Structure formats: structure tokens, C-alpha cells
# Entry
Amino acid sequence: MFKFNVNAFAAAACFGLVATTGAHAFEFLGLNILPNLEQSQPIQQANLPADPRRDVQPTRTIVEDPTGEKSGSITIDTKNRYLYLSLGEGKAVRYGIGVGREGFAWSGRAHIARRAEWPAWTPPAEMLKRRPDLPAHMEGGIENPLGARAMYLFNEKGDTMYRIHGTNEPDSIGQAVSSGCIRLLNADVIDLYERVKVGAPVNVI
# Structure
């Protein structure tokens, strides 16, 4: 059984995705939603007995929409640590989030290209050399730092290597601790996951 700091492990998980492809800061010039991504990259599913909603109160609430975006759009306010899902008619669902720590913050437009339930994680070989305490592969589950759901952000250049995902460390919500990925409570990310579709636009500000 591996024992390590969960916050550091979650940050490593996101950093590993970026390090694998040498991804760098992104300058998003526009949105290019591909209509058939749902078919080409299907939802991953897994049935696990653990209840990710237990013992943690969700942060989500219905608020006046401050974003001006169309219904179905996601806006991530990294400064104030909120994610907004626009509902239309001036309303939005607001979720508390954790964001990238100093040196890993980013902004721009993207879209959700793939979704996964209980995503697995495989750190790259370079990371395993630096962090031999990490497992070579971790299946999806309640102990996985990516949490209960993940939504994969792409832009016109392809995979940004950033994700919107859950977390098993609720104290990290409202903090800048990740390597650029956006994290929500598992209960909140499940709710968001059930509301959004592949192709949904995402604006990180």
C-alpha cells in the first residue's frame, strides 16, 4: 500500500499529463468543437462500490449568471475559485474549485472532448524516476487523485493536457494546489458531469 501526501499526488497526476507531451502555456485563439467526439472517444465507465458523495457537503448553488455565456457553457474563474455552468435565463450553477498553483495557472478557451467515470492514471516514466513512491499505474477508484469523474479539455491544437476532475481531498477546494487541472469535490464533479456534454465550451479566466 502506497502512502503519500494526497495533495502532492494529485498535483503530480496533473503535472504528469502535461510532462508527457511537453505541453506549454496555451494561447487560445478560438473554439473548434468537433461534432463527433462523443462517438470517437466514448465515455469510460466503471462500477465501484464506494460512495463518493459520503460525508462531504457539496458546494454547488444556483446563482445569477455573471459570465454572459450561452447555456451549457463552463466558465472557470481561477481568481475567485469558482466554476460556473450557464443554465440560460440568467442563471448558473456555481461550484467551488481548486486551481493551479503559482507557475501552473493558465487561461484561455477550450472545449470538453472526452469524459471519463473513475478515470485511471499512469504517470510517465520521467515522473516515476523523480517520484519512486508513485505507483506505475492507478486504476480508477476512491483513492485515485483524479476522483470520481474527469472531463478532458481540448482546443484547436488538440489535447491541452488539462482536466476538470474530482478529488479525494476536500480541503484542497478553494486553494491553488494543482499543476493546472481544475478540481471539484467528487459530489460536485458528478453533478457537473451529468449536466454537460462532449463539445461543451470552456472559458478559463
Notes: Residues 18 and 24 are 8 Å apart (CA to CA).
